[in-house]
């Protein structure tokens, strides 16, 4: 990359008479041509990362920073009278819906920056995750036509590398779009677009189309097979071109990582190609697959464990169904020699007429990992217990990480500059260096406090611009931003706020430091109860913010359309990060790590990576509460939320508010009430919202009190920020490279 030449090009860019959009394309293209001209060494071994989601966010600022020209570009264009911040209106590439997709993006960033060859494979959805706005407090969804206005200058269409994907009833062309990932190496994210007939094009139209009908399920299967087969097809073909049919050497050149089970059809396609096209025996093909594939599990929620009806797969992919059935028998033969029947049933690929995609993944993978210590332990103890008993060496943990480039250097340049001045530049390539910063030093603390104040002010300005709401300036900013799900317990926060509201109104909290609660979350389209919770929180916001008696002390904001770019504003401007999932349910969490890196304390449960965060930063510098995984098993034996509420009358007051006319209700509040006290698709209060609420309130009030000692609180925050090295995706990728991919 020739930086001087790029800067020269930017200087010569004429802004006059051009639209913002035209300039965006022109500057992006200038960067792209520099990137594309940089030669790359052919690697000995490449990682292929299969993921149905890649939540890349906005590429413009990140790429200019990666190229080392961001600050200079800002100056160059400022002189021309053009503010690069105009490009903050550019759409996020939101081809994912949450943690799993953002993790894939962070991992691409780290692999490139560490110089590991890694190529991401996925789908180029025409529409990303829906856009969200609120009407009367309810979520309205709009299609995310992300390419329409701004186009996609950061990708290159590779029409000459297209490949056919064959279904029984149609053949679909997969056209790759390559996005370079710039770092020490230039890696590629290759997303396939489905072309051919209108039917074919549907395959790459939407992320997670509804799968409650047979048609919907078939479309999902088509999507999963489509990108898996396209990627495997190309990888195998290119391997043969270079090495001939010596497939025993395939695992020396390639390692595949399955980001959850959505690309498990890649296993079947790999076996199909090797046996049908290249005439290997089935056993031989399985042997090679076993040395090539690895699987990361991201969730233990039973409803998220993929199973596909054998009949359905047979309908459109008979050969693939045949491969999976053969694999099932092959595995059984391997096991039947010695394993107890309960174990072989549990590990079985075909179960009750369905393919268990997780069992395929576990059987074929050399390595199976969870994403935080506790989660990996749960995989061994519960989800994959039988497989673990018979092949313990397969299982390992790699705790997630997040890229410090986007989540610190880009979104909090003020904090990064402070580190530069105090520590030199080494921390930028080795986050462990941050440990050197003295958190007790008064100058450091006042610098940090000043930076936090700036980031809070910037956040307040941004929220005012986007939502039209002025945040209280001198308040504790407490944020809960993540997908909306019952297990994440946004409802528990809502009830806690309502409790604080009643107490404030009753004059029971005379020394209360003003608190602002910031929520951001999208609810899946078909997830009625999650939508009800959004409505409930917006109702509370209206009540609290409109009440002159309390609104100088308490404020609630639910921002619309929370996405990667919004996260980049909220996270640095937050004092307290809420991570309050029911213990055992949040596999890891990665938002928690981003907050930590930006100097927010965690108020949370002992779940997912919170446990490791607290280990690194000290329990005394965070606020931990709530039932633990071990306790929950016991509690659930005889938990009756109605009885619990009768014994905790202050809790009863807030749950009564759901039905006593405090709010108008069009069914949403009743829905929430039922979830807490009645048997629905889960037992009453399945996620122990009420059970943990008293302890949650204590923790919130403790934060409220301790925040008054500004210096002490800032120290806790700074300790968190400077102990976050372990949660860098650079560390995580080093672990994958060493323990799973064998690149070192
Ligand atoms: C499965 C079957 C049918 C339909 C949908 C799905 C499905 C879709 C998406 C299942 C799971 C997902 C996404 C899961 C996810 O984002 N998990 C998160 O992964 C993060 C990265 O490892 C963790 O930090 C989070 O704890 C975890 O919730």
- The CATH topology assignment of the largest domain is Rossmann fold
- Which hetero ligands occur in this complex? ligand 26Q
Secondary structure: helix percent: 40-55%
In terms of DSSP E residues, the strand content is 15-25%
Q: Mean of the pLDDT scores? A: 97
Q: For the record, give the distance between the C-alpha atoms at the N and C termini, rounded to a whole number.
A: 26 Å
Major beta sheet summary: 10 strands, mixed
How many runs of DSSP E, i.e. beta strands? 23
* Gross morphology: globular
Low-confidence segments, given as residue ranges, are none
Helical/strand content category = alpha/beta
Radius of gyration: 26 Å
How many structural domains in the coordinates?
3
CATH class descriptor name of the largest domain: Alpha Beta
Tally of separate helices: 31
Query: Based on the structure given, which CATH architecture of the largest domain is correct?
Result: 3-Layer(aba) Sandwich
CATH superfamily of the largest domain: Glycogen Phosphorylase B
Your description of this structure?
48% of the residues lie in helices and 15% in strands. Helix 21 crosses helix 28. With 744 residues, it is of the alpha/beta class. It is globular. The chain is built from 31 helices and 23 strands. It starts with a helix and ends with a helix. The strands form five sheets. Strands 1, 4, 7, 8, 9, 10, 11, 12, 16 and 17 form a ten-stranded mixed β-sheet that branches. The protein folds into three domains: 71 residues; 331 residues, 3-Layer(aba) Sandwich (Rossmann fold), CATH 3.40.50.2000; 261 residues, Rossmann fold (3-Layer(aba) Sandwich). Bound molecules: ligand 26Q.
